[in-house]
Design brief:
- The chain has about 475 residues and is α/β, with parallel strands linked by helices.
- It has 4 domains: about 120 residues, no CATH class; about 60 residues, no CATH class; about 40 residues, no CATH class; about 190 residues, Uracil-DNA glycosylase-like domain (Uracil-DNA Glycosylase, subunit E), CATH 3.40.470.
- It is built from 19 helices and 14 strands.
- The protein has a 5-stranded mixed β-sheet, covered by helices on one side.
- It is extended.
Length: about 475
Amino acid sequence: MPRTCVRLDGAADSEGFRREARRLLAQGVDPGAVDWSDDAAQHGLSGALWADLPAEGGPPVAAPAAPRVPAAFAALCGDALLHGEPQRFTLLYRLLWRLLHEPALRHDPLDADMLRAQQLAREVRRDIHKMRAFVRFTRVDGDRHVAWFEPEHHIVEANAPFFMRRFARMRWAILTPERCVEWDGAELRFGPGADRREKPPPDAGESLWLTYYAHIFNPARLKLAMMRREMPRRYWHNLPEAALIEPLSAAAGERSRAMIEAPPTPARRIRAPIPLHPLPAQGAVPQSIDELRLAANACRACPIGALATQAVCGEGPLQPPHMLVGEQPGDLEDLAGRPFVGPAGQLLDQAMARLGWPRDAVYLANAVKHFKYELRGKRRIHKTAAQREAEACAGWLAHEIALVRPRALVALGATAARALLGRPVAVQAERGSWLTERSDGLPVFVTQHPSALLRLPDDQRAAAWARWLADLALARQRD
């Protein structure tokens, strides 16, 4: 059988493998007749791996009558091709050939070739994770940082975008024996491998890191077997903290005994906080916005008040032509203690500037005075106030309207509209008109909250923005 030799442009030349595999399939070349090789001095990782291969749901490229390749095979190849196994190209081309000629293969979970490819992919993903965990940057040349790492597989180009996003504002370079990458703040550049002797010497940050590591080392939680599994010894010689692991581990037993034998820490007496200003009497009617803010801060009629930073009352002139009422403060408003200073507030500022409507001519407030959120990691994500929570704040909004004495109310969103009108409001159906249902006779104009525009897809935002501006223009006409 005549043999076909395929030479790729590098160990990570996924684009070249994709192109050659398609050509070989179109020519009907059997996997056993192909010899794959690569030039380890060059690389050609593509950002669109397997984009043109026949996939589930799309027409086949090479042979219209051929079975389609499962979409999961593309992701599998994208990882497995980065492995250091010399026979990976042969394995994956054989799998591709078999998927096209053996339809039952995709349903066989115990196929040896598929299991081997999945193993290669898992090892590559693990190596990518370890690189992200164990790269240690050292400051050189002022604001430039350099790290040395020794990956097991050809993952540098695949992993570079992660470091670009993670350290977008830092100039850095990662040196490896096979491939180097540099980020200058605008562009990723790749080059040939480096020698370990080019690894930069320790800087002041490394000494600080070692001091911190030694102080957070908890001997009571030491599990050496688990630590070695998550931090294999092959990485230790490039990790500054590795020099501390053995002495700290050796002393762990003695430190644990000392912690157990130490006398108990005296209980700390926690005194009740003393308010900086006297709280208003229970049931007292606030006589000013400052008194309203103080009373709302002490409110615990619903759970929101205990978790927020502070109550956020409105701001603006008294007796204004318009009082704009939103839903509730967001994360930035909660920290600043002012309404409409976050992204939604910035969008409202843009709209008012477009209409020539000065912000200081209106009073801005929210129906709910505390920020409701849920924690996702370190971020506080906005959550819509429940009806019961909005009703608990209804008294504060009523006091605020009485103190401000506006001539008209503008409800931004459904929560604000319900709080002002006392009934459920379908914003899209009732927007753009004045409603006179309040017992105090104040007219209410209903429109969208600016945050609703921020959540729209890009192709819908322009039309929604134009309609929202038209609503605000109608509201402003009533003076």
